[in-house]
Amino acid sequence: MSIKTYAMAIRDVIAEEMRRDERVFIMGEDIETLGGIFGCTRDLYKEFGTERVRNTPISEAAIVGAGVGAACAGMRPIVELMYMDFTFVAMDQILNQAAKTRYVFGGKAKIPLVIRGQQGIGRGNAATHSQSVETIFMHIPGLKVVCPSTGADAAGLLRTAIRDDNPVMFFEHKALYSVKFEVPDDPEFMIPFGQADVKREGSDVTVVANLLYVSRALEAAERLAEEGISVEVIDPRTLVPLDLETIVKSVKKTGRLVVVHEAHRTAGWGAEIAAQITEEAFPYLDAPPLRLGAKACPLPFNLGLENAATPQVDDIVKAVKATLYR
Amino acid sequence: MISTERQLWIYDVMNKIRCFELKAFQLFQENKLRGSVHLYVGEEAVAATVCSLLRDEDYITSTHRGHGHCIAKGAQLDKAMAELMGKATGYCKGRSGSMHIADFTKGNLGANAIVGGGIPIAVGAALAAKLRGSDQVAVSFFGDGASNQGIFHESLNLAAVWKLPIIFVCENNGFGISVPTWQSTAVEDISVRAQGYNMPGYTVDGNDVYAIYEVMEKAIERAKAGLGPTLIECKTYRYLGHWTGDPQPYRTREEIEDWKQNRDPIKRMRKRMLEEGVTTAEKLDEIERLALEEAEKAAEFALNSPEPDPSTLMEDVFYEGV
Description:
The structure holds 2 protein chains of 2 kinds. The relative contact order of chain A is 0.12. Chain A has a 7-stranded mixed sheet with strand order 3-2-4-5-7-6-12, sandwiched between helices. Chain A is α/β, with parallel strands linked by helices. In chain A, 38% of the residues lie in helices and 21% in strands. Chain A has 12 helices and 14 strands. In chain A, α9 (244-254) crosses α10. By secondary structure, chain B is of the alpha/beta class. Chain B has helices at residues 4-29, 44-52, 67-72, 77-84, 119-132, 150-161, 181-184, 209-224, 253-262, 265-275, 281-303; strands at 59-61, 138-143, 166-172, 175-176, 179-180, 201-205, 230-235. In chain B, the strands form 2 sheets. Chain B has a 5-stranded parallel sheet with strand order 1-2-3-7-6, with helices on both faces. A two-stranded antiparallel ribbon of chain B has the order 4-5. In chain B, α1 (4-29) runs antiparallel to α10, α1 packs parallel to α11 and α4 packs across α11. The longest helix of chain B has 26 residues, at 4-29. The radius of gyration of chain B is 19 Å and the shape is globular. The N and C termini of chain B lie far apart (49 Å). Chains A and B meet through α3, α4 and α5 of A and α5 and α6 of B.
């Protein structure tokens, strides 16, 4: 184990995979000498050169499209988007091309493409640079959707993503980059997709959260423990494929579910989980599943407004209690 | 100069494309074929000539009007026709229909139903070739309409900055569905857009095999020398509607007849080959007859092929292998 930041965990996996497989290369904006604005590719160009660590023009659609083409032609590209909000600039290439190519071509194509970058609140980046957009990519079949909440998860899931022969949307969180975690040193450390992680065991209420909200859910669980309420916190880690089984198992035990995420609450992925749990475990539910997510307004710049728009630890505490009718 | 063998290859491919397209049109009119079908009749010289200079390992990306590119890049007519009819024996197991036919074994990275959607994909294939240090080249086919999409401009810039081995082939048939190019496009010759991306741009008669061949040869040489991309605009004309049901109020019968009678790429090539004594009328008649026969057989194969089994519906959404 090493102690390293979430950003360095990502950087090290990219480096190890580029050493291991010469078909792996990375392209994106400012990733060469600057090392990406969050440092996830720091100094990689020194080891691998500027052919394999490629600065690009500010042309997100073309970068993603070139990633799809290079993947079709036998390479294993990683495309770094500076903000995952910028996926919207490249949507045709992601949703119409990357996601559908294998299927419409009758299974002939493999698209080993990772599109990765950070998203979310925490730096005052306002409406077009603070969104949590992972749900959108869960809606269109053909993409795997990954959201690591710790340095170890980032490392293990990114390695799996790079070695996967399908397009993977890899969502990092900007507020986690400088947080230090214990990360395994094993250059073969991989976390399979579709395996949720029970981050804290409990018996009264199940809370499902991802990315930054895993730590917030754990904080809420800590506070609730003081009041004698036992909360189980589950991080699905990948939304596609989704490990519903682990959540079902937990809800059968607790009878209560709260889903909390930074993505907008309206039609957010929490709604999908709440619906699936209602279908799969209805007889076990002692309260309606509750959803917490960002309010239905663009993310504002002002910190007080940003906090008002997104779920706070207090909100999680209240929601958990509400499922207990307290 | 184009070798005799290659001239005959181009002539053969143009005839195959035309017979295939006219057969598909007939099947559509007989309600045996459904969906959006965009036919390439009249534009055959572009696909056939460009692909005559490519090998299996070279890449292409194609368009919604993609049957011609697909056939020119080596597709079998029977499997292509079966795909148009959505049959299990089609190139894509009946999932793609007319607009997404692909054959990776022949370097065909697919037709693309989004206007301009295939352009950056060809750029990526060219990038793969460059990273591997291979001598492969990529060709992106697209229409005049696609040259007004942002992705066209992003892709040309990216390919030029990275000096990628790619040739952008614009098929300017004068219309984006019903909108004439003069109404949608700020320049008369789309090739002038190459200047903005520091690459050579050529406008050629897209119904003249020999004119296309000449610039394509130069473009490939440039690509393989590591000098980067070229934009080639081929001015051509489609004889049929944008799609099979297009009532075509935006042009006159006289205009269409004029192109058919006076500028048809197949007739022109036949005339020139005979004038120059490249081959005999009997040989060309034979090529035409065989093309017709192959298209008929393709239709028969497609009609007699099984429908895809609904149990295969969820296959290939993801690659599940290890």
